[in-house]
Fold this protein.
Amino acid sequence: MKNLCVRDGTLYTPADFVVIETGNDEIAPIILGRPFLNTSGAVIYASAAKISFYIKGRKETFFFKNKTTQVSDQSRHESMKRTNRRNRNKQVWTESSKMVTVVHGGQDHRLKSPFLTKKDDPGMPSIFCSINGYNFYKTTCDAGSGVNIMAVVTYRLLFGTMPLKPTYIQL
C-alpha cells in the first residue's frame, strides 16, 4: 500500500505499508517502522518512556509504560538451575578448548557503576493513530523494522476487498 495518510494524535504523516497474512487475529497490531519514524521526525526518549513526533513545526508526544511481570519463586528457582548448569558447561568448554579467561577476584562484578544507574526496559513505544477513519490505540513504533506493517485482516477492515499487489520481501 502506497501513501496512506496516518494520523498520529493531531498530526498527519504519509506512509507505505506491507500487508502480511497473519490469520484472522482482529487485534493484530500495526507496526510503524523506521520509514514512518523518519518521515514523522520521531524522537524516542527511552529514559522518560515517551516518543515525540515533529511534523511541520508541530509536536505530538505519547508516553509508554513498562509492563511489570511477577516471577514466581518456582520459575526463579528453575532459572537458577539453568544458570548453574550453563556455568558448569561453560567451565567444561573453557577447559577443553584451553582458552585463557580473565577471572576477577571477590565480588567486583556486583559493584555499582560510578557513572550510570542501570535501568529496566521502558517497554515498546506504542501510540494512538488513525487510518481511513479507524482508530488504533496500540500501534507499535519499532525502530528495528525497515518497513511499516499491517495485517491483512486490518487491511480488509480499512479497504474491504480492494486488491493488493503481490510483493516479495523477506522479513
About this structure: The chain is about 25% helix and 25% strand. Residues 4-67+122-159 form one domain. The radius of gyration is 23 Å.
